[in-house]
Amino acid sequence: MTGCPIPDVAIGTARWRLPLVSNGQLIGYDRFEPIGAALTIHTMPQVILVRPIERADYADWRPLWDGYNRFYGRHGPSALPESISEATWERFFPREEPMHALVAEHDSCLIGIAHYLFHRSTTRLTDVCYLQDLFTAEEARGRGVGHQLIHAVYEAASAAGSSRVYWQTKVTNAPGRALYDKVADHQGFIVYTHEL
Q1: What share of residues in the chain are helix, strand, coil (percent, to 5)?
Q2: Which of 94, 132, 189, 194 is most open to solvent, judged by the fewest CB atoms within 10 Å of its CB?
Q3: CATH assignment of 10-183?
């Protein structure tokens, strides 16, 4: 819980900041406001701002990060070591880092996070974008926040020259998959892992 009041859903226009890229390098951010029916999305009556994370966001980011990890069973004895959370936070800020973070903000409260990174692919000449973490505060779910964060990642990836965004989720995440089926294609892949 973020403690932020969440009003009813309405149709509105999203705003977010896009990365400014020159010669493949991130040089800053610019506000972007989509116009037209194709980019109109469900938002709350007041605009939800999706923007790059800032250092001042830590106190509001951390409960969302902890909620995301709790959702995937990483709490209590299986919680991530604090050093991983600290390193994750620090990776969002150096220019040379391929890891990035966006936050969804409503009435000065963070209500969602998206963490993504760029990497090379053997099947493309351009980098691909992996949306690693996506989480919406429980009280804000079902109100278009996740949809807006995903589309903001699409815009950031496109602006960075990436030609593909992908992510994974558990097969048991029915609410998330209901959204993902609307904004992306499930291509039938199964993920295998082996811890070293």
Answers
A1: 30, 30, 40
A2: 194
A3: 3.40.630.30
